[in-house]
Structure formats: C-alpha cells, structure tokens
Design goal:
The protein is an alpha+beta fold and 516 residues long. The protein folds into three domains: 177 residues, no CATH class; 133 residues, no CATH class; 162 residues. The protein has 16 helices and eleven strands. Helix 5 runs antiparallel to helix 13. GO terms for molecular function: peptidase activity.
C-alpha cells in the first residue's frame, strides 16, 4: 500500500504567494512616490542641484546609491515578510507635510527638504507595513542624509578651529593675537574662513560613521562610541590642520603654507582621518562580514496590526495629505500692496548726507529686494561718519528672503568675511566683519516684518511664517547701521547715537514700505 504525504496549510503565505502579494504594494509605492515628487518637484530639483553644485554636499550624491545597496542587502530577508497597509505611516506623511508647510511659509529650505524626505519615508511605511518598516528602519533613517544641512554650524566651527589654533600656537611658543576668526602672527594675518571650518568634512564623516556603525557593529554602546569618534576626530584634526598651516607659514612663507594646505587638505587630509577613524574602530567590530543585517523570519513572526484600508485608498490618502499644505498656502496667500515707486535716504537731525567713500568698498547683499539704498552720514557736531544701508521687500519668497545664507551685512562672494558676533543692541544684531587690509567694520542689523522690529533672523523667520500661514502683509525692511573701526573701542557708541537720531525705526520702515 502506497501512502501520500499531503502538505499542511500553515495560514502564512508561502514563496510564490508572498511574491504575488508584494507586487501590488510595490506598484502602488512607485505611484505614490511619483505623485509626491511631482507635487514637490522644485524641492527635489533644488536638493539635487545643491548636491551637485555645493562642495559641502557633494557626498549626498552617494547617499542614493548607498540606500539602494542597503535595500539590496536586505532584500532576501525582506522577501520572507508579508507587506501590508499600515496607517501610522500616514501620520508620518502628515508630519512631513507640516514640516514642508512650515519651511515654505518661513522660507527655510532645510524644513522643506526634510518634509519631502519624511513624506517619502511615510509612504514606504504606509504601503509596505510595519514588518517591512522594521526591516528597513536603518535605510529609512539613513535617507535623512539626503537633506542638505550643516551650513548653520559654520560660524561655530570657525570659532572652535580658531580657538584650537591659538591653543596649539601657544604650545609651540609662536606669538599670536586673535580677533574673532582672524589670527595675527609675526609672519602673517590668517583667516579661519568658511572653507577652513571643516564643515563639509564633518558632515560627510557623520554620514560615513552612521553607515559603518550599522554595518560593522551590533552593540549599541559600540555604535554610540564610534559615532562620537566620527564627530570629534574631524573637529580636532581640522584644528591641527589650521595650526599646521600657520606653523609652516611661520617657518617658511605664507604662500608656501597656503599652497601646501590646499594640496594636503584636498588630497590627503580626508583620507588620513578616515583611515585613522577606521583603524581605531576596527578591533571593536562585532558583526561578522557574512551576518545578515536583518532576520526575515523573525520579522514575519512579529506581531503587526493589519489595516482594512486597501492599497489604492492608501495611495489616495497619501496624495491628499501631501497636497494639503500646498492648498493651504494657496488659500492663505499673503496680502501684498504696492510699494512707493521711489524711496530716499531719510533726513536725520544733527547729521548730513555726505559722499560715500569707504576705505574698502562695502555693500550689504539683499538679493530680490525691490529697493536698496546705501549712503553715508556725517555728524555736524564732530564730523564722525556712519553708513546706512536700507533694503525693502514687497514680499518674500524662495530666493528673495530678507534673512538667509548670503543675505545681510556681507556678501560671501566679495572679500568681506564675518569675524565675530558683538554684544547685541536692543532690537538689533551686532557683528564685526573684516576686509583685506585689514579693514574692520561693526554692523547693527534691524529688521521690520509685520508688527515686529528685531535683529534676530529666527524671529524674522517666525514672523514670516505666521504671516504666510494666517495671511497678512509680507512687506519687510532691513536697516543696517555700520561704521569702520578706527580705535580699540570701536564705533559702537556713535552708531547707537546715530540710531537714536534716526528715530523710531519701525515707523520709518513702515513709511518706506508705503504702509503709513
């Protein structure tokens, strides 16, 4: 008698069945991603242009291939899981759309780009489900490195690098004097410029450290320690590099030291620090090279709530959530009114307008401003001079904001450079900038937006955000009061005296904007 063994139904989809279940989810995921990229194509394009054109973010060009490689590494195990709709993913899409809305309203590209990435992440989670999201958790996290960030840390890194250089110079018995991010020695005058801040190297090392931590370590403690090393070693190494440049210049010449630094930094520095970090971390790697990054069987057995929402309805919900912030801004578009056709420098009691003759040409940068004025005033009582720059915007939008990188007291495309922040004056930001010579200037920056007068760029962004979200006039006016330093005490007091003579800046700003 011949017996036959019949397969036992397990209740779980097997090989070919699971493959068929994946297909509609992947198709709808592709549709949803195309919808989001279509709605926010300008932000996607701007991100790619930033990766390509700004050297600080060139490493982002590698993030997409790395993400694809990481998915490929996990794919054999992911195929053991069953995809399903998971509605919490829609909540993440909603958070991303809110981030984009806030960024668009305030004119903050970082928030817009972050919101776009979050919406794409949420789409993966909503359409593939909790089990797959667990398997792709690191990949989803790593996609945050697609967002260009870090420029806001440049002044801090410049200051840290300059302070470290001074410390090392003291150890080397080289006399030096520091003023902001400028260092003077008996053989030269050195600027710790933006390019010397080490920000591009630091951001790339953070992304690299996160990848190595996931691939080479299992222990979260070891991952945290490796990330700490990836963060601190580049900062310390950059301080040593800046000191080395000054040290070489002290014993040879400035031209030789500068040329050596460019070659060393461009070709060897990154590779050396990368090898150093890996060499330190190598003995502590605790993941074998052939270990799977995830366990598909464990993921499949994990509890996961199923949703009764269909895949197509989830795609529709995704599209509506992504569209909501665009529709909101269209409905609450800012009110605008015409500016005066011409504006003129104000008359100030006790001061007279004179020819503008700076030691080194200075002109603040306000791209997109509808009106710009720049003039010089002389006090009648003692002949002291102060310069006044005014910029008026009828409205703000991407590429024409009153505050932002490259806007304000100095134009980064000129020889002027930021040196340090000074103690603020009421309702104004105070800073020092330097040009070749050196020529040193103090600048007080006032901004009028809505009903607020402030020197804080963050406050300007928040007020702009409120007006864009709730509706209101987008008129914005900048007043920059400035003077060259001719003594150790600086021109601070005469600039304050000039501002008092100018009268209420908020009222004057409203008059220039045609609101009074």
């Amino acid at each position: 008698m011949t017996g036959a063994v019949m397969p036992v139904a397990s209740g779980q989809p097997q090989g070919s069945e699971r493959s068929q279940l994946w297909q509609p989810h992947l198709r709808m995921l592709g549709v949803a991603v195309l919808v989001i990229l279509g709605l926010f194509w300008r932000d996607a394009r701007d991100m790619v242009v930033t990766w390509w054109n700004i050297s600080t973010y060139n490493h982002c060009l590698l993030i997409l291939p790395i993400l694809a490689w990481q998915v490929h590494q996990r794919w054999p195990e992911l195929q053991k899981t069953t995809p399903h709709v998971w509605l919490p993913g829609l909540a993440w899409i909603a958070l991303g759309s809110i981030a984009w809305l806030l960024g668009e309203a305030a004119g903050v590209s970082l928030a817009r780009h972050l919101g776009l990435v979050m919406m794409l992440q949420g789409t993966v989670v909503a359409l593939l489900g909790q089990k797959v999201a667990k398997g792709l958790l690191f990949v989803l996290f790593y996609s945050f490195f697609l967002v260009p960030f870090g420029e806001e840390f440049v002044p801090l890194l410049q200051t840290i690098t300059a302070d470290m250089s001074m410390l090392f110079l003291a150890w080397a018995n080289i006399p030096a004097f520091i003023d902001g991010v400028f260092i003077s020695t008996p053989t030269g005058y050195f600027e710790v410029a933006e390019a010397c801040s080490g920000v591009k190297f630091l951001i790339a090392m953070i992304a690299y450290g996160a990848l190595v931590s996931n691939i080479c370590f299992r222990s979260w403690r070891r991952r945290a320690l490796f990330m700490l090393m990836a963060l601190t070693v580049p900062i310390i190494a950059n301080g040593i590099r800046a000191f080395g440049t000054i040290y070489i210049a002290h014993h040879t010449s400035t031209d030789f030291a500068t040329g050596f630094d460019h070659i060393f930094y461009g070709w060897f520095f990154f590779a050396f620090v990368l090898v150093l970090v890996m060499a330190i971390g190598w003995p502590f790697f605790d993941r074998k090279i052939d270990d799977a990054l995830i366990d598909g069987d464990v993921l499949e057995r994990s509890g996961a709530r199923q949703s009764r929402f269909s895949v197509s309805r989830t795609v529709l919900a995704t599209a509506l959530i992504a569209l909501a912030p665009v529709a909101w801004l269209s409905a609450t578009s800012a009110q605008t009114s015409a500016l005066p056709e011409r504006i003129a420098l104000p008359e100030i009691p006790g001061w007279e307008v004179v020819a503008y003759e700076p030691t080194y040409d200075w002109k603040p940068r306000f791209d997109g401003a509808d009106h710009q004025l720049l003039g010089s005033y002389r006090r009648l009582s003692d002949g002291q001079t102060v310069d006044l720059a005014i910029a008026v915007f009828a409205s703000q939008e991407d590429g024409r904001e009153i505050v932002g990188y490259g806007q304000g007291a100095f134009d980064p495309d000129t020889e002027w450079a930021w040196s340090r922040n000074l103690p603020d004056v009421a309702q104004a930001r105070a800073e020092q900038i330097v040009a070749p010579g050196p020529v040193v200037r103090d600048v007080l920056s006032y901004y009028r937006i809505g009903e607020k007068l402030t020197g804080s760029g963050s406050a300007v962004k928040l007020e702009t955000l409120k007006l864009r979200l709730l509706g209101g006039s987008q008129h914005a006016v900048a007043f920059l009061v400035s003077a060259e330093r001719d003594s150790e005490e600086g021109p601070r007091q005469k600039m304050i005296d000039f501002t008092k003579a100018l009268g209420p800046i908020d009222k004057l700003a409203d008059e220039l904007a045609g609101l009074r």
